[in-house]
Amino acid sequence: MSCRVDWIPLGDLVHFESGGTPSKKSQTYWNGNIPWISAKTLIGDSVATSNLYITSEGLKAGSRLAREGSLLLLTRGSGLFKRIPLAMTAKDVAYNQDIKCLTSKRANISNRYIFFALRSLEPNIVAMLETTGIGAGKLSTDRLKTLQVPVLDSESRLKVERFFEAVFQKIALNTKLNGYLAE
User: Fold this and answer.
1) Residue 71 in contact with residue 47, Cβ under 8 Å?
2) How far apart are alpha carbons 134 and 35 in whole angstroms?
3) Helical H segments across the chain, by residue range
4) Residues 29 and 61: beta-carbon distance below 8 Å
5) Among residues 17, 99, 19, which one has the least CA distance to residue 59?
6) Entry pTM
7) How far apart are CA 171 and CA 74, in angstroms?
8) Is the dihedral of CA 100, 103, 109, 111 positive or negative?
């Protein structure tokens, strides 16, 4: 049994969108019901909540919405020197300018597959890490777009998604169990 693999630049597979931060001076933009994701809250493989929430006015005034099932990737911040935060959105969330939202350009390649492919390419992404003038980490969007991503044939992609989905669900269950044990 063989599997065909095509190596395709990430920029040919996904759309990149930048987030933003509504003015913190305006109370009408904050304390709403839309989770607003920053480097601090981009933790784990899935993200749905935050310590900060914005209103729909705040969304219109400077942030952007990542739809459920999108990928969020931290592209600027000191946390990049420790890990590459990448998560799937478990619900619609807003996000700041240090994060890119990635969504598949191709109907036959799911965001979930791209998530797993990028996880497997984390050492390659780390190798792209640069330093800003203030000493923070930075992933250049132009460089990320050139990252070669393995795209398997459709049958193999489906098998990979199922396998890694089972692994990630098991990890989530173990994490939950560990939380119960700690209590």
Assistant:
1) no
2) 28
3) 10-13, 56-60, 111-120, 122-127, 141-146, 154-182
4) yes
5) 19
6) 0.89
7) 22
8) positive
